[in-house]
Design brief:
Elements lengths: L2 E6 L5 H11 L4 E6 L2 H9 L4 H16 L4 E4 L5 H7 L7 E3 L2 H10 L2 E6 L2 H17 L5 E6 L1 H8 L3 H16 L4 E4 L18 E2 L1 H20 L1
Parallel strand pairs: 1-2, 1-3, 3-4, 5-6, 5-7, 7-8
Helix pairs in contact: 1-9, 5-6, 7-8
Length: 223
């Protein structure tokens, strides 16, 4: 049986990814590791820290010890830790937002990115620029941080959170060629946006599809 370990920095990414994994890889065994102190520590520091990277290593080393076939990193805020850890962990690691960043850089040259926390926005922007550079494409990234939405979420007001985010997304769509949602938890808003002038990309579906493709490539390579 295929075993996938998902490393989360909070509980909000667990259900969206469980749903996608069940849909795309229904026979896989999925193990979720959740440590909400990771994102809290990144937010407190304002950036990824060596201590957070070390804890990420320990979780992914545990996944390797569980004989996982693949590890899925569920949070963009710690995604750059994966770039370091891929050289230390034998088990292949997929970043949830990598496929989305690649798709966005192929769609247009003016890319909008929406987040509710700056520590997620900045690595997502760097990821998009990296993917564009790999394809020798020049892009302009337009950033939006909907901080009021995050404060509303902390206060338990999900309705206001969603309202602020929708307004931010729709407004940004008038300025760019494609909009990227930097956090997994935002994906549930996409069906409620209605018709938008440009594509709005979220990471759960494409990230799990990327993981599925990596699994299939690994299997074909061992035959």
């Amino acid at each position: 049986m295929t075993t996938i370990v998902v490393v989360h920095t909070g509980p909000v990414t667990v259900q969206p990814l469980k749903d996608q994994l069940k849909e795309q890889l229904p026979d896989a065994r999925v193990i979720n590791i959740v440590d909400d102190s990771l994102l809290n520590d990144v937010r407190a520091a304002g950036h990824l820290t060596p201590e957070v990277t070390q804890r990420m290593y320990s979780y992914m080393a545990n996944a390797q010890a569980m004989h996982a076939d693949m590890i899925l990193n569920a949070c963009s805020s710690v995604g750059e830790a994966v770039d370091l850890l891929r050289g230390m962990i034998r088990t292949p690691i997929v970043k949830i937002d990598e496929a989305m960043a690649l798709e966005a850089s192929r769609i247009g040259t003016r890319i909008g990115v929406v987040a509710t926390v700056k520590t997620t926005l900045e690595p997502t922007v760097r990821q998009i620029r990296k993917k564009a550079a790999e394809q020798k494409r020049e892009v302009t990234v337009v950033e939006r941080v909907a901080e009021a939405a995050f404060e509303a979420l902390l206060a338990g007001d999900t309705e206001r959170h969603d309202e602020i985010l929708k307004r931010t997304i729709v407004g940004l769509a008038d300025e760019v060629d494609v909009v990227v949602l930097a956090q997994v938890s935002m994906a549930r808003l996409v069906p409620t946006l209605g018709a938008t002038r440009v594509p709005v990309l979220s990471s759960p579906k494409s990230g799990v599809a990327s993981l599925k493709g990596a699994l299939e490539s690994a299997r074909s390579g061992t035959r």
